[in-house]
């Protein structure tokens, strides 16, 4: 499959996934690094920021906006510039996420979690990185994320061969109230 065809097949898959999984943007009027969905948690129990999450609890599931990530990887030429843009997009998106978490529809969820390759240095933003304890889930998610990486990054094959440990999927999680405290702007700083 040509890179052009692979990329456009990926975009089509992302569109279908968002609709089927009912994943929504933080703000429909602006693009942000994160997408979210309210879910009933079905994984293994974990504790983060004093919040115990067990099966059937309500949670907020966090997804990376892979379409935005793909554009960023195509625009930026060096790993340093990609890292800087990711940092910039994270800082711009977290206050919006914190604001959205206060909406009534997320009132029953006390934790935010996602599974990702992008977990290095995420603790500086209030997230805790936890291992995926289920071997079959780790393999399934790893397989899926490697395909996403190949679709969005022309250097994916080289990266997966030379730095395989960097591409181990992990669970990243935070207590909802902690994210709100850390990232919600004060009244005077809020953007209309």
Describe the structure.
This protein has one domain. It has 6 helices and 8 strands; from the N terminus they run αβββββααββααβα. It has a 6-stranded mixed β-sheet with strand order 1-2-5-6-8-7. It has a two-stranded antiparallel ribbon with strand order 3-4. Strand 1 and strand 2 form a beta hairpin. Helix 3 crosses helix 6. The N and C termini lie far apart (45 Å).
Provide tags for this entry.
192 residues, alpha+beta, 6-stranded mixed beta sheet, two-stranded antiparallel sheet, 6 helices, 8 strands, globular, disordered C terminus
Structural class: alpha+beta
SS summary, helix count: 6
Strand neighbour order, sheet with most strands: 1-2-5-6-8-7
Radius of gyration: 17 Å
Question: Which helices and strands appear, and what pairs or packs with what?
Answer:
Layout lengths: L2 H18 L3 E4 L2 E11 L5 E3 L2 E3 L4 E7 L1 H10 L3 H22 L10 E6 L11 E4 L3 H18 L3 H7 L7 E6 H8 L9
